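Postdoc handover notes: sequence design on the structure in folder B. Input tokens:
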């Protein structure tokens, strides 16, 4: 298991280092992810080549992955191609489901694994600088209410998100709060809420999150694509 995790980590960092610099790779992984590489879990889905960030779900290694990706457009394209290939393999497994209860359960588990791995890369507490567009969006009444609700949702999970606009984790909780607001439209306390308007704000927020963390959009798209075979 450790050897496989190390190879996955070395592959993640390969664009930065030449051959023979194994200790640099090991030290870099340790600095960003502690001993998380030792607990890496390869995907059980045939054809999925998950990188170390996906195998561990570790925020530090996910941060390293983003740094590697941001360093060079060519490297970023390699990661995109890898994600597309992995998603295709996962969707292919779901397409093969025969429709028995056991098949559907397996398909749902694979769908959850796909989304969770991608969300783990995109949703972190690493600080971000809110863009002018995001700050403008935050002035909408539904966003103001959602930001307050997001802190409560996070607290239920023993998390303190601080300024909800300053991390992708906080923004994800805001997105979930907007879900709740939209679903409560017309109910007591939400009589003046327009579901369509809240959903537009939510879509605008997702667009802003996607600019910061492209994997967030990839996770949503993968979940949606994987839901097709399950719901048929």
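Designed sequence:
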């Amino acid at each position: 298991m450790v050897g496989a995790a190390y190879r996955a980590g070395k592959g993640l960092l390969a664009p930065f280092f030449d051959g023979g610099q194994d200790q640099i790779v090991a030290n870099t992984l340790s600095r960003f992810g502690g001993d998380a590489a030792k607990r890496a879990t390869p995907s059980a889905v045939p054809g999925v080549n998950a990188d170390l960030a996906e195998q561990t779900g570790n925020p530090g290694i996910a941060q390293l992955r983003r740094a590697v990706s941001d360093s060079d457009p060519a490297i970023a394209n390699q990661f995109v191609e890898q994600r597309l290939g992995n998603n295709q393999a996962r969707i292919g497994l779901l397409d093969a489901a025969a429709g028995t209860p056991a098949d559907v359960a397996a398909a749902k588990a694979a769908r959850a694994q796909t989304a969770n791995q991608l969300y783990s890369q995109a949703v972190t507490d690493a600080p971000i600088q809110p863009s002018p567009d995001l700050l403008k969006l935050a002035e909408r009444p539904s966003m103001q209410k959602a930001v307050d609700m997001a802190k409560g949702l996070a607290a239920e999970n023993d998390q303190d998100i601080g300024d909800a606009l300053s991390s992708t984790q906080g923004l994800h909780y805001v997105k979930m709060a907007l879900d709740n607001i939209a679903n409560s439209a017309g109910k007591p306390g939400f009589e003046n809420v327009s579901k369509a308007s809240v959903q537009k704000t939510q879509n605008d927020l997702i667009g802003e999150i996607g600019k910061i963390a492209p994997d967030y959009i990839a996770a949503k798209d993968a979940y949606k694509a994987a839901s097709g075979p399950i719901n048929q």
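Context for whoever picks this up: Residues 2-123+214-231 form one domain. Don't rerun without checking with the PI first.
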